[in-house]
Protein backbone atom coordinates (compact mmCIF):
# COMPACT_ATOMS: atom_id res chain seq x y z
CA UNK A 1 0.00 0.00 0.00
CA UNK A 2 1.50 3.31 -1.08
CA UNK A 3 1.43 6.77 0.44
CA UNK A 4 -1.65 8.09 -1.35
CA UNK A 5 -3.60 4.82 -0.98
CA UNK A 6 -2.97 4.89 2.74
CA UNK A 7 -3.98 8.51 3.25
CA UNK A 8 -6.98 8.19 0.92
CA UNK A 9 -8.13 5.30 3.05
CA UNK A 10 -7.58 7.34 6.20
CA UNK A 11 -9.66 10.27 4.96
CA UNK A 12 -12.65 8.00 4.44
CA UNK A 13 -14.85 7.88 7.48
CA UNK A 14 -14.22 4.85 9.61
CA UNK A 15 -15.70 4.16 12.98
CA UNK A 16 -12.52 4.43 15.06
CA UNK A 17 -11.23 7.70 13.61
CA UNK A 18 -14.73 9.21 13.88
CA UNK A 19 -14.95 8.21 17.54
CA UNK A 20 -11.48 9.68 18.20
CA UNK A 21 -12.49 12.93 16.52
CA UNK A 22 -15.76 13.15 18.46
CA UNK A 23 -13.94 12.47 21.73
CA UNK A 24 -11.11 14.88 20.88
CA UNK A 25 -13.50 17.76 20.17
CA UNK A 26 -15.72 17.08 23.19
CA UNK A 27 -14.40 19.95 25.34
CA UNK A 28 -14.72 22.48 22.52
CA UNK A 29 -18.20 21.25 21.64
CA UNK A 30 -19.47 21.25 25.25
CA UNK A 31 -18.15 24.74 25.90
CA UNK A 32 -19.37 26.17 22.60
CA UNK A 33 -22.90 24.74 22.66
CA UNK A 34 -23.54 25.43 26.32
CA UNK A 35 -22.77 29.11 25.58
CA UNK A 36 -24.81 29.07 22.37
CA UNK A 37 -27.75 27.43 24.16
CA UNK A 38 -27.77 30.19 26.77
CA UNK A 39 -27.54 32.87 24.07
CA UNK A 40 -30.65 31.71 22.23
CA UNK A 41 -32.66 30.54 25.26
CA UNK A 42 -36.10 32.11 25.15
CA UNK A 43 -35.34 33.90 21.87
CA UNK A 44 -37.80 33.52 19.04
CA UNK A 45 -35.71 35.14 16.31
CA UNK A 46 -32.17 35.83 15.14
CA UNK A 47 -31.82 39.48 16.08
CA UNK A 48 -28.88 41.82 16.78
CA UNK A 49 -28.72 40.70 20.39
CA UNK A 50 -28.37 37.02 19.38
CA UNK A 51 -25.70 37.91 16.82
CA UNK A 52 -23.77 39.95 19.40
CA UNK A 53 -23.87 36.96 21.74
CA UNK A 54 -22.71 34.68 18.92
CA UNK A 55 -19.83 37.04 18.17
CA UNK A 56 -18.67 36.83 21.80
CA UNK A 57 -18.98 33.03 21.79
CA UNK A 58 -16.88 32.65 18.63
CA UNK A 59 -14.18 35.01 19.90
CA UNK A 60 -13.97 33.26 23.29
CA UNK A 61 -13.74 29.92 21.44
CA UNK A 62 -10.53 31.26 19.82
CA UNK A 63 -11.94 31.50 16.32
CA UNK A 64 -10.24 34.91 16.20
CA UNK A 65 -11.69 38.40 15.74
CA UNK A 66 -11.31 38.75 11.96
CA UNK A 67 -12.74 35.32 11.19
CA UNK A 68 -15.57 35.84 13.69
CA UNK A 69 -16.55 39.13 12.03
CA UNK A 70 -16.51 37.40 8.65
CA UNK A 71 -18.83 34.62 9.91
CA UNK A 72 -21.21 37.11 11.58
CA UNK A 73 -21.39 39.23 8.40
CA UNK A 74 -22.26 36.16 6.32
CA UNK A 75 -24.95 35.09 8.79
CA UNK A 76 -26.42 38.62 8.86
CA UNK A 77 -26.62 38.59 5.05
CA UNK A 78 -28.34 35.20 5.03
CA UNK A 79 -30.80 36.17 7.75
CA UNK A 80 -31.70 39.26 5.74
CA UNK A 81 -31.80 37.52 2.34
CA UNK A 82 -33.36 34.16 3.24
CA UNK A 83 -35.60 35.51 6.00
CA UNK A 84 -34.35 33.16 8.68
CA UNK A 85 -36.30 34.11 11.74
CA UNK A 86 -36.01 31.48 14.44
CA UNK A 87 -33.09 31.20 16.80
CA UNK A 88 -33.25 27.40 16.44
CA UNK A 89 -32.07 27.80 12.82
CA UNK A 90 -28.85 29.43 14.01
CA UNK A 91 -27.08 26.06 14.44
CA UNK A 92 -27.78 25.16 10.82
CA UNK A 93 -26.65 28.57 9.52
CA UNK A 94 -23.48 28.52 11.59
CA UNK A 95 -22.58 24.98 10.52
CA UNK A 96 -23.04 25.84 6.84
CA UNK A 97 -20.97 29.05 7.03
CA UNK A 98 -18.09 27.39 8.93
CA UNK A 99 -18.08 24.53 6.39
CA UNK A 100 -17.90 27.04 3.52
CA UNK A 101 -15.12 28.98 5.22
CA UNK A 102 -13.01 25.84 5.71
CA UNK A 103 -13.70 24.77 2.12
CA UNK A 104 -12.14 28.00 0.87
CA UNK A 105 -8.80 27.18 2.51
CA UNK A 106 -8.54 23.39 2.66
CA UNK A 107 -8.21 21.16 -0.37
CA UNK A 108 -9.69 17.70 0.16
CA UNK A 109 -8.25 15.86 -2.84
CA UNK A 110 -5.55 13.75 -1.18
CA UNK A 111 -2.90 14.37 -3.85
CA UNK A 112 -3.31 18.11 -3.37
CA UNK A 113 -2.08 17.57 0.19
CA UNK A 114 1.35 16.94 -1.34
CA UNK A 115 2.96 19.75 -3.27
CA UNK A 116 5.09 17.56 -5.54
CA UNK A 117 3.71 14.07 -5.93
CA UNK A 118 6.52 13.04 -8.29
CA UNK A 119 9.29 13.92 -5.82
CA UNK A 120 11.31 11.06 -4.44
CA UNK A 121 12.21 11.33 -1.74
CA UNK A 122 9.43 13.71 -0.69
CA UNK A 123 11.13 16.03 1.81
CA UNK A 124 9.18 17.47 4.74
CA UNK A 125 10.76 20.13 6.95
CA UNK A 126 8.89 20.44 10.25
CA UNK A 127 8.90 23.76 12.12
CA UNK A 128 7.28 25.06 15.31
CA UNK A 129 8.14 26.26 18.80
CA UNK A 130 9.24 23.88 21.54
CA UNK A 131 6.44 22.13 23.39
CA UNK A 132 3.81 22.10 20.63
CA UNK A 133 4.21 18.39 19.97
CA UNK A 134 6.54 18.76 16.98
CA UNK A 135 8.73 15.71 17.60
CA UNK A 136 5.73 13.56 18.54
CA UNK A 137 3.97 14.63 15.33
CA UNK A 138 7.05 13.62 13.31
CA UNK A 139 7.12 10.25 15.06
CA UNK A 140 3.44 9.62 14.38
CA UNK A 141 3.81 10.65 10.72
CA UNK A 142 6.85 8.37 10.34
CA UNK A 143 4.79 5.52 11.77
CA UNK A 144 1.90 6.14 9.39
CA UNK A 145 4.14 6.45 6.31
CA UNK A 146 6.16 3.37 7.30
CA UNK A 147 3.04 1.27 7.88
CA UNK A 148 1.88 2.30 4.41
CA UNK A 149 4.96 0.58 2.97
CA UNK A 150 7.08 3.71 2.45
CA UNK A 151 10.79 3.96 3.19
CA UNK A 152 11.25 6.81 5.66
CA UNK A 153 14.39 8.61 6.87
CA UNK A 154 14.33 11.01 9.84
CA UNK A 155 16.75 13.90 10.41
CA UNK A 156 17.31 15.15 13.98
CA UNK A 157 18.16 18.78 13.11
CA UNK A 158 16.79 20.25 16.36
CA UNK A 159 20.30 20.06 17.76
CA UNK A 160 19.85 22.69 20.48
CA UNK A 161 17.93 20.40 22.81
CA UNK A 162 19.23 16.99 23.82
CA UNK A 163 15.65 15.97 24.62
CA UNK A 164 14.53 16.61 21.03
CA UNK A 165 17.34 14.49 19.57
CA UNK A 166 16.79 11.68 22.08
CA UNK A 167 13.02 11.73 21.63
CA UNK A 168 13.32 11.47 17.85
CA UNK A 169 15.79 8.59 18.20
CA UNK A 170 13.25 6.77 20.39
CA UNK A 171 10.55 7.28 17.77
CA UNK A 172 12.88 6.04 15.00
CA UNK A 173 13.60 2.92 17.07
CA UNK A 174 9.93 2.34 17.86
CA UNK A 175 8.81 2.82 14.26
CA UNK A 176 11.86 0.98 12.90
CA UNK A 177 13.06 3.68 10.51
CA UNK A 178 16.62 5.04 10.08
CA UNK A 179 17.58 8.36 11.63
CA UNK A 180 20.44 10.76 10.88
CA UNK A 181 21.69 12.42 14.05
CA UNK A 182 24.94 14.22 14.84
CA UNK A 183 23.97 14.74 18.47
CA UNK A 184 23.40 17.96 20.39
CA UNK A 185 25.05 21.32 19.62
CA UNK A 186 25.97 20.31 16.08
CA UNK A 187 25.16 22.16 12.86
CA UNK A 188 21.45 21.54 12.06
CA UNK A 189 22.00 22.25 8.34
CA UNK A 190 24.65 19.52 8.21
CA UNK A 191 22.18 17.03 9.73
CA UNK A 192 19.52 18.03 7.18
CA UNK A 193 22.01 17.65 4.30
CA UNK A 194 23.08 14.17 5.43
CA UNK A 195 19.47 13.05 6.01
CA UNK A 196 18.39 14.12 2.51
CA UNK A 197 21.51 12.54 0.98
CA UNK A 198 20.84 9.29 2.82
CA UNK A 199 17.25 9.46 1.60
CA UNK A 200 18.43 9.75 -2.02
CA UNK A 201 21.16 7.10 -1.68
CA UNK A 202 18.85 4.57 0.00
CA UNK A 203 15.90 5.14 -2.35
CA UNK A 204 13.68 6.48 0.46
CA UNK A 205 10.17 7.72 -0.28
CA UNK A 206 9.96 10.28 2.54
CA UNK A 207 12.54 12.31 4.47
CA UNK A 208 11.28 14.20 7.54
CA UNK A 209 13.54 16.86 9.08
CA UNK A 210 12.98 18.16 12.61
CA UNK A 211 14.17 21.74 13.24
CA UNK A 212 14.79 23.91 16.29
CA UNK A 213 11.76 25.54 17.85
CA UNK A 214 13.33 28.68 19.20
CA UNK A 215 11.77 32.07 18.54
CA UNK A 216 14.50 33.99 20.36
CA UNK A 217 14.93 36.40 17.46
CA UNK A 218 13.15 36.46 14.13
CA UNK A 219 16.39 37.14 12.26
CA UNK A 220 18.18 34.10 13.67
CA UNK A 221 15.16 31.89 13.04
CA UNK A 222 14.90 33.05 9.43
CA UNK A 223 18.61 32.63 8.82
CA UNK A 224 18.70 29.18 10.33
CA UNK A 225 15.71 27.87 8.37
CA UNK A 226 17.04 29.45 5.16
CA UNK A 227 20.42 27.77 5.66
CA UNK A 228 18.79 24.38 6.25
CA UNK A 229 16.80 24.78 3.03
CA UNK A 230 19.86 25.87 1.03
CA UNK A 231 21.95 22.86 2.00
CA UNK A 232 19.09 20.42 1.28
CA UNK A 233 18.80 22.00 -2.18
CA UNK A 234 22.38 20.98 -2.93
CA UNK A 235 21.06 17.41 -2.94
CA UNK A 236 17.49 17.96 -4.21
CA UNK A 237 17.05 21.37 -5.91
CA UNK A 238 13.35 21.78 -5.03
CA UNK A 239 13.58 20.50 -1.43
CA UNK A 240 11.85 20.82 0.93
CA UNK A 241 8.61 19.96 -0.84
CA UNK A 242 6.63 20.65 2.29
CA UNK A 243 7.19 22.97 5.25
CA UNK A 244 4.86 21.75 7.96
CA UNK A 245 4.18 24.13 10.85
CA UNK A 246 3.05 22.39 14.04
CA UNK A 247 0.85 24.45 16.37
CA UNK A 248 -0.56 23.59 19.80
CA UNK A 249 -4.33 24.12 19.57
CA UNK A 250 -4.64 24.43 23.35
CA UNK A 251 -2.68 27.70 23.33
CA UNK A 252 -5.47 29.52 21.48
CA UNK A 253 -4.33 33.00 20.47
CA UNK A 254 -0.67 32.09 21.00
CA UNK A 255 -1.03 29.67 18.10
CA UNK A 256 -2.02 32.64 15.88
CA UNK A 257 1.10 34.54 16.99
CA UNK A 258 3.34 31.53 16.27
CA UNK A 259 1.73 31.06 12.86
CA UNK A 260 2.41 34.72 12.08
CA UNK A 261 6.10 34.45 13.09
CA UNK A 262 6.80 31.24 11.18
CA UNK A 263 4.94 32.25 8.02
CA UNK A 264 7.11 35.38 7.98
CA UNK A 265 10.27 33.36 8.53
CA UNK A 266 9.71 30.65 5.93
CA UNK A 267 7.30 29.47 3.23
CA UNK A 268 4.99 27.32 5.35
CA UNK A 269 2.60 25.37 3.08
CA UNK A 270 0.93 22.97 5.53
CA UNK A 271 -0.29 23.05 9.13
CA UNK A 272 -0.68 20.46 11.87
CA UNK A 273 -2.76 21.53 14.87
CA UNK A 274 -2.17 19.31 17.90
CA UNK A 275 -3.60 18.73 21.40
CA UNK A 276 -7.20 19.54 20.48
CA UNK A 277 -8.40 16.83 22.87
CA UNK A 278 -7.15 18.73 25.93
CA UNK A 279 -8.80 22.06 25.22
CA UNK A 280 -12.07 23.92 24.62
CA UNK A 281 -10.23 26.06 22.03
CA UNK A 282 -10.87 23.91 18.94
CA UNK A 283 -12.19 27.03 17.19
CA UNK A 284 -8.55 27.91 16.58
CA UNK A 285 -8.57 25.46 13.63
CA UNK A 286 -11.24 27.58 11.90
CA UNK A 287 -9.50 30.90 12.57
CA UNK A 288 -5.98 29.83 11.61
CA UNK A 289 -7.18 28.17 8.42
CA UNK A 290 -9.04 31.35 7.46
CA UNK A 291 -6.43 33.92 8.48
CA UNK A 292 -3.33 32.29 6.98
CA UNK A 293 -4.83 30.63 3.89
CA UNK A 294 -2.61 27.62 4.52
CA UNK A 295 -4.25 24.18 4.47
CA UNK A 296 -4.64 22.45 7.82
CA UNK A 297 -3.28 19.04 6.89
CA UNK A 298 -3.33 17.18 10.21
CA UNK A 299 -5.07 17.53 13.55
CA UNK A 300 -4.10 15.81 16.80
CA UNK A 301 -7.06 14.58 18.86
CA UNK A 302 -5.34 12.23 21.31
CA UNK A 303 -2.20 10.38 22.39
CA UNK A 304 -2.34 7.35 20.08
CA UNK A 305 -0.55 7.26 16.72
CA UNK A 306 -3.89 7.09 14.90
CA UNK A 307 -5.15 10.14 16.82
CA UNK A 308 -3.06 12.24 14.44
CA UNK A 309 -5.62 12.46 11.65
CA UNK A 310 -5.72 13.91 8.16
CA UNK A 311 -7.89 16.98 8.58
CA UNK A 312 -11.25 16.37 6.94
CA UNK A 313 -13.21 19.61 7.09
CA UNK A 314 -16.63 17.97 6.74
CA UNK A 315 -15.91 15.38 9.45
CA UNK A 316 -14.54 18.15 11.69
CA UNK A 317 -17.65 20.33 11.34
CA UNK A 318 -20.01 17.35 11.63
CA UNK A 319 -18.30 16.33 14.86
CA UNK A 320 -18.34 19.89 16.22
CA UNK A 321 -22.08 20.22 15.63
CA UNK A 322 -23.02 16.65 16.58
CA UNK A 323 -25.76 16.60 19.17
CA UNK A 324 -25.42 14.22 22.10
From TrEMBL:
The keyword Zinc does not apply. Residues 295-308 form the SRP54-type proteins GTP-binding domain. It is found in: Cell membrane; Cytoplasm. SUPFAM superfamilies: Domain of the SRP/SRP receptor G-proteins (SSF47364), P-loop containing nucleoside triphosphate hydrolases (SSF52540). The keyword Nucleotide-binding applies. It comes from the Bacteria. Its EC number is 3.6.5.4. PROSITE patterns: SRP54. It is a peripheral membrane protein. It catalyses: GTP + H2O = GDP + phosphate + H(+). Belongs to the GTP-binding SRP family. FtsY subfamily. PANTHER family: SIGNAL RECOGNITION PARTICLE RECEPTOR SUBUNIT ALPHA (PTHR43134:SF1). Part of the signal recognition particle protein translocation system, which is composed of SRP and FtsY. Involved in targeting and insertion of nascent membrane proteins into the cytoplasmic membrane. Acts as a receptor for the complex formed by the signal recognition particle (SRP) and the ribosome-nascent chain (RNC). This is Signal recognition particle receptor FtsY. It comes from Rhodocytophaga aerolata.
Amino acid sequence: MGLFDFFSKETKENKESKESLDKGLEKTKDSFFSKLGKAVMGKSKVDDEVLDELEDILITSDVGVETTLKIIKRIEERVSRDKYTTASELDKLLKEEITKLLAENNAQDIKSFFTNTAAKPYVIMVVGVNGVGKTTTIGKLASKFHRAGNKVVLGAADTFRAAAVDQLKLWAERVNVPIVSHGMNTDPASVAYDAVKQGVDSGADIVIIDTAGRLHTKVNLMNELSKIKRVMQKVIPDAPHEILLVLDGSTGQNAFIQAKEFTRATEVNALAITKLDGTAKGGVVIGISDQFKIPVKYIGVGEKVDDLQIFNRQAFVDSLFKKK
